[in-house]
Amino acid sequence: VGAYYTPRNLAAFTVDQAFEHSTNIADEIVYDGACGSGILLVTAFRRMLNAAEAHTGEPLSFIERCELLVGHIRGSDINKAACMVTAFSLYLSLLENLRPSDLTLIGGDDHKAKLPKLLEVILWSGESEGDFFSKKLMANKAINATIFISNPPWREPKSAEKGLTYEAWAAHPERNWHLPHRQIAAAFTHRALDVIPVGGRTCLILPAKLFLSATSQDFVGQFIQRCQLKRIICFADVRLVLFPEAIHPCVV
Description:
alpha/beta, 5-stranded parallel beta sheet, two-stranded antiparallel ribbon, 42% helix
């Protein structure tokens, strides 16, 4: 099993889709339940930062940038190292193009301004805190997102693998969601709809077979009964451009 990180151009396109109907981008709260190295969250934050500065007509101060980041970005991942990379990338975006007065404030000996804590505050990681299907993360009221955006893991476990948290979650009698070929991305798709309130949005990068394969009919039927599907964009023709070693094409 390999990790395929989201290319920058695909991340930008996906964020465009997620924000398409936002009346004020900076008011959204964006959550990625499998944030990896954070490319989707960083792209979303930069877009929100630009929108907020366009609205005010001037650069945001360091404090205002911190408030936007901590108040409107959320992420989780089982991989703790990945969340640390996400935090570092968000810090870099936070510090880009700061006003000279803010740079002086941060660099001063009196330490009047500090980088906000992100890990365990807006970024959660590990088998308990970061597993998208763990009971602890499900009960985390700090997520409180309006948009769910993610390139979740694509994985179909072997028949001998048992006790997977996402399968136990999907098989619960209150849900009984169909997961074609035990695909974890299918479970992410259903769980994302639970995270977002009525009127919210999800935008996901998924294996194309989840929607195009004959074996996925039950999954598709359940999915479209739960949401208002805006569009499915298929990238089959450019899959090797997006992911040179990927076997399966993707859809957004």
